[in-house]
Amino acid sequence: EADIYQTPRYLVIGTGKKITLECSQTMGHDKMYWYQQDPGMELHLIHYSYGVNSTEKGDLSSESTVSRIRTEHFPLTLESARPSHTSQYLCASRGIADSYNEQFFGPGTRLTVL
Amino acid sequence: KNQVEQSPQSLIILEGKNCTLQCNYTVSPFSNLRWYKQDTGRGPVSLTIMTFSENTKSNGRYTATLDADTKQSSLHITASQLSDSASYICVVSDRGSTLGRLYFGRGTQLTVWP
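Predict the joint structure of the above. Result:
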């Protein structure tokens, strides 16, 4: 089982609150990713990072921001949550030497904004 | 446009029965195809991976096939168990992308009844 962790697993908050979703991996992977997934839909890439101090936006526009100050840590922040942000957020990582491009996923954070 | 299409969208079978899930893709240039299992409220976990030169790969009761010419893949589950109830996601990786971009299908939701 991959060593990638996400907290909290579930979060219910009110509109306008600032939240940070945590993601950590202990595999020393350089590349990390954030995906958003709605029920019955495919995963959409919202942020990714090649390594420390590298962050890029993904295919799906998101009002969230990310940071990568340490290799193992890739938090996602919403400055002012809205009901449209309600979704499942999945973090993943990949080793730079992995030729198969295998991404290991965390358990996800289910966010509900009231 | 790079796409991954899966069928059926959902499937209900009785415990002990076999089933086959389908995946069609248009991702190019192709690198590999992976089947993931995603339990409700969890992150995806890799079941099998196949490169261009492989046309079948087994993992216990799961057998995946790949036809790179027709760009089709299938996942066959033998002697289904209640624990097989999950979403099965077909994921295709393109070649030559430093990001290691993955293209996700929407998944087939499998329910196994006792």
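The two ends of chain B are 41 Å apart (CA to CA).
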